Amino acid sequence: MTVEPSQIADEGSVAFAQSETLEAVHELELTYLGPQSVLSGLKASFKDLDVAERKVLGSQMNAARQKLEAAAQGRREELESAARAAQLATEGVDLSESLGKAKLGHSHVITQTWERLEDVFCSMGFTVADGPEVETDWFNFEALNLPPAHPARSLWDTLYLDSSQLEGLGQEQLLLRTHTSPVQIRSMLRAVRDNSGPPIYVVCPGRVYRRDTADATHLPVFHQIEGLVIDRGITMGDLAGTIESFVKAYFGENMTSRLRPSYFPFTEPSAEFDISAADGSWLEVGGCGMVHPNVLKAGGLDPEEWSGFAFGFGIDRLAKIRYGVEDLREFVTNDVRFLSQF
Ligand code: DAH
């Protein structure tokens, strides 16, 4: 015998191991295992052998074939997995990258402002209180020291509801609240009822309504935040300090505030508070004052025992100032080019 099967197997195994491509593996398979291969050619010598010798040669050929097949298969798998790895490296998609690019939505700038205001006041020790948008005349006006036909009622262009159509509501005049101030009354009555106060330190953000035509500085539906503090010995100094702390926390340390005498039926004395602008001018932000004794009484509190201050301002107007928005209507026209800036 000229060539031993095991020799062919050894030589072939080395060749498979050194092959660099799947095509090369295939070529080698034809060379070492195909019908024209040296191994297959050995069958021709069977005719010169006796039965015992054929058996020996047959099993040597089988062993060689198995070894060569295993070498081919092993190398093919190595090359395939290397090719997969190379493909992944070049065509791979970085999913974290696509996450960054995805256009995710976010809260409306008014919601962001509302939530920031809550955060600022909560960090100052206030809690958040709530009240209905459909109010009674009593909560919106009368309890706030604005009896029927009080001339100052005309300061609030009110949307009244025809409650005669609604059964079971009694004679109460319903309206869409024109400010968040009725939550002052609700907070006092709630505290008295639940025995949870005074002291009361609450802010009440919410939606309010006025019979107004929308223009650059007015919206018929807008947002306010009300603040109410009731405790013993509260003074105008506490009010001024609270406003100043708020302005610094919300707008930054270089901003300041001032109080200007004004009139509101539910506070006495009353003031308007302004914040400083970069150019040295003052921007009017909201109203405030010491809670009127009649308001404390309507809230179920004794004005001899308790005193407090209140303030209220527009959330939309504050966002307008903070972000330099020219026209309040931008907030409600839902133009994504405007909204996506915030
Ligand atoms: N409710 C007033 C308004 O809508 C704002 C206001 C002024 C609220 C003075 C107050 C206050 O709590 O003390 O115009």
Automatic annotation (TrEMBL):
Localization (cell): Cytoplasm
Organism, scientific name: freshwater metagenome
Record field: catalytic activity: tRNA(Phe) + L-phenylalanine + ATP = L-phenylalanyl-tRNA(Phe) + AMP + diphosphate + H(+)
Keywords (A to Z) from UniProt: Aminoacyl-tRNA synthetase, ATP-binding, Cytoplasm, Ligase, Magnesium, Metal-binding, Nucleotide-binding, Protein biosynthesis
Domain Aminoacyl-transfer RNA synthetases class-II family profile: 117-341
Keyword Membrane: no
GO BP terms, alphabetized: phenylalanyl-tRNA aminoacylation
Assigned protein family: Belongs to the class-II aminoacyl-tRNA synthetase family. Phe-tRNA synthetase alpha subunit type 1 subfamily.
Gene3D superfamilies assigned to the protein according to its UniProt record, in alphabetical order: Bira Bifunctional Protein, Domain 2 (3.30.930.10)
Recorded GO CC terms: cytoplasm
Subunit organization: Tetramer of two alpha and two beta subunits.
InterPro entries according to UniProt: aa-tRNA-synth_II (IPR006195), aa-tRNA-synth_II/BPL/LPL (IPR045864), Phe-tRNA-synth_IIc_asu (IPR004529), Phe-tRNA_ligase_II_N (IPR004188), Phe_tRNA_ligase_alpha1_bac (IPR022911), Phenylalanyl-tRNA_Synthase (IPR002319), tRNA-bd_arm (IPR010978)
Name recorded for this polypeptide: Phenylalanine--tRNA ligase alpha subunit
PANTHER family: PHENYLALANINE--TRNA LIGASE, MITOCHONDRIAL, PHENYLALANYL-TRNA SYNTHETASE
EC id: 6.1.1.20
Cofactor(s) in the UniProt record: Mg(2+)
Keyword Membrane: no
Residues passing through the membrane, by range: none
Chief subcellular location: cytoplasm
UniProt GO MF annotations: ATP binding; metal ion binding; phenylalanine-tRNA ligase activity; tRNA binding
